[in-house]
Automatic annotation (TrEMBL):
SUPFAM superfamilies: Lysozyme-like (SSF53955). The keyword Hydrolase applies. HAMAP family: ENDOLYSIN_T4 (MF_04110). One of its GO terms (molecular function) is lysozyme activity. It comes from the Bacteria. The lineage of its organism: Bacteria, Pseudomonadati, Pseudomonadota, Alphaproteobacteria, Sphingomonadales. Keywords: Antimicrobial, Bacteriolytic enzyme, Glycosidase, Hydrolase. Transmembrane segments: none annotated. This is Lysozyme. The keyword Transmembrane does not apply. Its EC number is 3.2.1.17.
Amino acid sequence: MADSSSSSPSMSSAALPLGLTAAVVTASVAFIAPWEGTRLVPYRDLAGVWTVCSGETRVEMRRYSRAECDTMLRTAVSETYGQCVLKAVPGLRRRPDQLVASISLAYNIGCDAFERSTAARRFNAGDWKAGCNAFTKWVYSAGKRVQGLVNRREAERKLCLKGLS
């Protein structure tokens, strides 16, 4: 994850990386935060990975303030996950609901997994509905089906399908 000090929660859209608007970053953070929760003290997630804040795994494992966690999430969305999603599926620039849903998926499964995913392949083929429906494949942690992931993927899928005819 990006260093939490490299970005401010009040960054303007002019400061955002190409392809992301402040509205998309704000919507992504608002969508992701309730699913991830915020834990100020490091803990082991379902897969046994040390985690802190809102699912951060690539930062120093120490106690963080709520403000630090909020900044980390916003920075991760704008500088890492939003960018990897747009790199994998450039057509999402013109589809904010699908972009927000995809950023949430990538935040949870990782950029590499998103880039190789059926969802990304179907989006790039122009099959937007099938791409959204492919989100539901990502419901396992450490080889076990997790109801919380089932619920999250269904919420992401519904957001992704929004506005598609």
